[in-house]
Amino acid sequence: MHKYQPRVHLVKLRPDYHYNGNTPVISNIEYQQYRTYVFPETQFIAVTAYQNQLITKLKIDSNPFAKGFRDSSRLTDLE
User: Are 41 and 69 found together in one domain?
Assistant: First the structure.
């Protein structure tokens, strides 16, 4: 498991900034005015590996994008 804390960074661009299409080109943020905001209520924990093999199998069976895992021969131990 890993704990994550999302942050929002707001960067004030100078009027003489160059743009690549609609995207500003920021070469060095250290020279820009910026603020970082952290909202503690957005903190979350992500599970990177399940210890229970039955839960792993359930997650794979329920995930429509996990076709490669369902076709794998390594899952025969779980059945």
Answer: no
The pTM of this model reads 0.47
Q: Which residues contact 36 (CB under 8 A, 6 or more apart)?
A: 7, 8, 9, 10
In this structure, are residues 46 and 1 in contact, taking their beta carbons and an 8 Å threshold?
A: yes
Total domains, the chain: 2
> Do 3 and 34 fall within a single domain?
yes
Task: Tell me the residue range of the domain where 23 lies.
Answer: 1-48
Same domain, 40 and 55: no
Per-residue pLDDT tens digits of the chain, which is 79 residues long: 789 999 998 888 777 666 667 777 666 666 678 899 999 999 999 887 878 889 888 888 888 888 777 765 555 555 5
The SS3 of residue 8 is strand
